[in-house]
Amino acid sequence: MAKMELDLITIGDPTLDTFLKIHDAHLALRVQPKQTQLCIDYADKIPVDEFHRMAGGNCVNAAVAAARLGLRVTVYGVTGADPEGRLILSDLQREGVDTSLMALDRRHTTNASTAVVFRGERTLFVWHQPRSYHLPELPTTAWIYATSVGPRGPALSRLHEALRRHLDRHPTRLAFSPGTHQLRLGALALAPLLSRTELLLLNRHEASQLTGVDGHPKALLEALHRLGPKTVVITDGTSGSYAFDGDRFLRTGILSVPVVDRTGAGDGYGATLMAALQFGRPLPVAMAWGTVQAAHVVGVFGATPGLLRRRRLQAAVRMHPQLMGEEF
Q1: Higher confidence at residue 132 or residue 68?
Q2: Which pairs from 194-197 meet CB under 8 Å and 24+ separation?
Q3: What is the pTM of this model?
Q4: What CA–CA distances, in Å, run from 125 to 32, 61, 114, 227, 270?
Q5: Distance CA 261, CA 169 (A)
Q6: How far is the C-alpha of 225 from the C-alpha of 219, rounded, in Å?
Q7: Residue 70 contacts by C-beta under 8 Å, 6 or more apart in sequence?
Q8: Tell me, what DSSP letter sits at residue 192?
Q9: How confident is the model at residue 2 (pLDDT cuts 50, 70, 90)?
Q10: pLDDT of 277-305, one tens digit each?
């Protein structure tokens, strides 16, 4: 493995994702007016219109996105030594993603989530096991995409320190998309990684959480950039996305498409933007790549089935020149 030539290693927590699509007009489920509550009749039996199960987790979603674009990819993550873990490995291998860095936890089962999808929105039930992370000696790679792991504690800190040591010894570029537990550590604890980050990817809520800034996108981007990353990118739902590379503030909109499931849209956007940079595309074009990819992700259930391969993605981007990031 040490001699394997790679373009990308993704690092994070794999999960097995299950999606239950409930009919939009089902009488047993109600969305309370003017509230963010989904009400279900207690002890009822609710028929499911569609059932889907597939490998997920930010590191898996990013790996599949990059592999479909033609990059040579491997994943470091931990699954249980169980049928669910084997299904994740099988899904990755079918996508051409190398799994030789994957670790098995024989004490705990595989992480899992179940999404109830009703009227275009999802409600998640998450099963997250405690993990110990032992980052192996990583092969040479152009990029590392580090994303959600947890929960907080010594295991997470050790993983961050092992990653920092690797970056100190190798000319690897880091794309960092921290998850909930990592963001709760705060900017000071994340500083050793942020100072080595080539590309920081967050949504607007996460950016505010990390910086304490809640204002204009320019203020958020500047606050993130001061933490050390070379390029920072913020996604903001239907408002599009914003980027700052220390020189230009860029913004792009979204493609207006029917939304089936938003799972993995951020991963598709971020991994595709990173891949475009690796292919030598400028940042405004990379933002267009990510935007088009995200639009195709939300059109189907799950984070990976809608991901485009490079030829189709480039053709779609050419059809929407208005998505090239513009200065603001």
Answers
A1: 68
A2: 194/227, 194/228, 194/229, 195/227, 195/228, 196/164, 196/167, 196/168, 196/228, 197/228, 197/229, 197/230
A3: 0.93
A4: 20, 19, 5, 33, 24
A5: 40
A6: 10
A7: 309, 310
A8: H
A9: very low
A10: 999 999 999 999 999 999 999 999 899 99
Q: How far, in Å, CA of 225 to CA of 223, rounded?
A: 5
Q: Give residues with Cβ within 8 angstroms of 117, minimum separation 6.
A: 19, 20, 21, 22, 260, 261, 301
Helix axes 283-297, 310-318, angle to 10 degrees: 110
Q: How far is CA 30 from the centre of its chain?
A: 30
Q: Report the Cα 114 to chain-centroid distance in Å.
A: 17
pLDDT in tens, 113-130: 999 988 877 889 999 999
The rounded percent of the chain whose pLDDT value lies above 70 is 97
Residue indicated by tokens 């980027």: 243
Q: For residue 175, how many C-alpha atoms fall within 13 Å in the half-sphere facing its CB?
A: 30
**If you average pLDDT over every residue of the chain, what do you get?**
93
Lowest-confidence pick of 25-39, 181-195, 201-215, 276-290: 25-39
CB 323 within 8 A of CB 292: yes
Across 19-38, b (16+ Cβ under 10 Å) vs e yields: bbbbeeebeebeeeeeeeeb
Distance CA 169, CA 69 (A): 28
- Helix H or strand E segment including 143: strand 141-146
Collapsed DSSP state (helix, strand, coil) of residue 21: strand
Q: Which of 157, 210, 154, 216 is nearest to 187 (CA)?
A: 210
Dig out the tokens for 215 from the structure.
Answer: 């204002």
Instruction: Say if CB 250 and CB 327 are below 8 A apart.
Output: yes
For residue 126 the two structure tokens come to 């998450």
The answer to whether the CB of 155 falls within 8 A of the CB of 188 is no
Listing DSSP states for 238-252 in one string gives GG-EEEE-SS-EEEE
Query: Taking phi first (over 0 means left), then psi (-120 to 50 degrees means alpha), and beta for anything else, what does residue 103 get?
Result: beta
Specify the pLDDT at position 121. Answer: 78
Strand order in the sheet with 231-235: 73-76, 6-11, 141-146, 173-176, 197-203, 231-235, 241-244, 249-252, 326-327
